[in-house]
């Protein structure tokens, strides 16, 4: 029996997926693979087409050397093939034209083979049979160099061999024995190149599946990391930032001072629910949780800036940070928040200042010479303490001179 410690659970990589013998994938995957295949072929197709152009030029030069009369018949078909090779290069290099790459590649292979068949029939020369060898070369070009998809290469090879057989039958210069040799050579070329193309496409499809599976794993892992990050920085009850998230956001905001230009300011509002312990004692902890969620929804609805945030500082205590906000505007925000929470009308018979839930707020504003987050929070806490000492259900603030006053 294997030891439990030796059982290692690994994520599937895609290499363990079974690929059907016919290579076909489900519809959406097959469409994605077709694009993936074209893009992979497009990197080598220009070089393959350039190789074809060089071979055509070499063949024409050799024909001119052997027999100018033969070259007079062959230069036009050679030029047609060279033009199609140039078109293949252009299509491969332009992404918006790339969907026609396999079509142009097939056209080039057919042009090479069929012009060879035509020249083999038309040219009466002892070496004229060599022109029929363009058919096996076209099959190699189609399957090995330009990598036409397997089923397209099969259909193209059958058509080219059939055209070769018809041309050999029509040629008055080629005997039966040589015709059989040429056909056998073409069949051998087709069988070997198609087998290689099948293996290549199968491996490429397997690689595509592996990449697809790994991409899904990365996407799932990224989503899981975002969930974990949210759980680590967001309070599950109120939806506000928790203490950890608040410290990170406030430090980031203060460290950014001086980078966005002069006049940067930020305000910190610290508030808690008046006599919340009595609320819990009177209505129960479940009602207390609902009260916290309802109260927290008010500042969350009022904050509008991208850098503004609301955090649950601890228990019934909350913090609101307003970026690029002056002390005057922060006081307006605090008073509006206090009023709206009072207007909620949440019953609170245990409060000694009102029959509904109220809050006390401490406000401090930091400019470019702001101290660290700890000092800023301490100043807001002093203002909150002053608001409580002055009778609760009010807003207190620390001025630029360090004095605490209430509204």
From TrEMBL:
Q: What molecular function terms (GO) are annotated for this protein?
A: diguanylate cyclase activity
Q: InterPro entries given for it?
A: Diguanylate_Cyclase, GGDEF_dom, Nucleotide_cyclase, Rev_trsase/Diguanyl_cyclase
Q: Which residues form the GGDEF domain?
A: 264-400
List where the protein spans the membrane.
41-62, 104-121, 150-168, 180-200
Alphabetical list of Gene3D superfamilies matching this protein: 3.30.70.270
Q: Which BP terms does GO give this entry?
A: cell adhesion involved in single-species biofilm formation; negative regulation of bacterial-type flagellum-dependent cell motility
Catalytic activity annotated for this protein? 2 GTP = 3',3'-c-di-GMP + 2 diphosphate
Q: Does the keyword Transmembrane helix apply?
A: yes
EC code(s) of this entry: 2.7.7.65
Q: Sorted alphabetically, which keywords does the UniProt record give?
A: Membrane, Transmembrane, Transmembrane helix
Task: Name the coenzymes or cofactors required.
Answer: Mg(2+)
Return the GO cellular component terms, semicolon-separated.
plasma membrane
Q: Which SMART domains match?
A: GGDEF (SM00267)
**SUPFAM superfamilies for the chain:** Nucleotide cyclase (SSF55073)
Q: Which PANTHER family match?
A: DIGUANYLATE CYCLASE DGCM-RELATED, REGULATORY COMPONENTS OF SENSORY TRANSDUCTION SYSTEM
Q: What NCBIfam families does its record include?
A: GGDEF
Q: What name does UniProt use for this protein?
A: diguanylate cyclase
Q: What is the lineage of its organism?
A: Bacteria, Pseudomonadati, Pseudomonadota, Gammaproteobacteria, Oceanospirillales
């Amino acid at each position: 029996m294997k030891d439990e410690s030796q059982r290692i659970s690994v994520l599937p990589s895609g290499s363990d997926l079974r690929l059907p013998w016919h290579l076909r994938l489900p519809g959406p995957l097959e469409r994605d693979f077709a694009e993936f295949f074209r893009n992979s072929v497009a990197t080598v197709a220009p070089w393959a087409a350039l190789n074809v152009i060089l071979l055509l030029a070499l063949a024409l030069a050799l024909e001119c050397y052997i027999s100018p009369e033969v070259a007079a018949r062959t230069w036009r078909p050679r030029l047609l093939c060279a033009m199609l090779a140039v078109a293949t290069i252009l299509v491969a290099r332009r992404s918006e034209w790339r969907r026609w790459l396999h079509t142009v590649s097939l056209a080039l292979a057919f042009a090479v083979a069929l012009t060879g068949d035509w020249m083999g029939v038309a040219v009466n020369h002892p070496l004229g049979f060599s022109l029929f060898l363009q058919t096996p070369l076209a099959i190699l070009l189609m399957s090995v160099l330009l990598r036409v998809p397997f089923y397209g290469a099969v259909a193209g090879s059958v058509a080219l061999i059939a055209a070769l057989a018809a041309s050999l039958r029509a040629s008055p210069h080629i005997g039966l024995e040589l015709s059989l040799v040429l056909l056998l050579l073409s069949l051998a070329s087709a069988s070997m190149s198609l087998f290689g193309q099948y293996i290549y496409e199968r491996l490429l499809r397997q690689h595509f599946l592996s990449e697809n599976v790994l991409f899904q794993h990365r996407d799932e892992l990224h989503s899981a990391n975002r969930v974990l990050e949210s759980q680590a920085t967001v309070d599950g009850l109120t939806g506000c930032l928790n203490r950890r998230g608040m410290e990170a956001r406030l430090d980031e905001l203060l460290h950014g001072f001086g980078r966005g230009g002069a006049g940067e300011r930020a305000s910190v509002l610290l508030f808690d629910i008046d006599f919340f312990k009595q609320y819990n004692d009177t209505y129960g902890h479940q009602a207390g949780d609902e009260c916290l969620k309802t109260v927290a929804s008010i500042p969350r609805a009022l904050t509008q800036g991208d850098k503004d945030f609301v955090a649950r500082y601890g228990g019934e205590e909350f913090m609101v940070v307003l970026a690029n906000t002056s002390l005057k505007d922060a006081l307006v925000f605090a008073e509006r928040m206090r009023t709206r929470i009072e207007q909620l009308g949440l019953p609170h018979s245990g409060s000694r200042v009102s029959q509904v839930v109220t809050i006390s707020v401490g406000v401090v504003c930091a400019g470019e010479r702001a101290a660290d987050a700890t000092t800023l929070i301490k100043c807001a806490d002093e203002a909150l303490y002053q608001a409580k000492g002055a009778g609760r259900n009010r807003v207190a603030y620390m001025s630029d001179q360090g004095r605490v006053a209430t509204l």
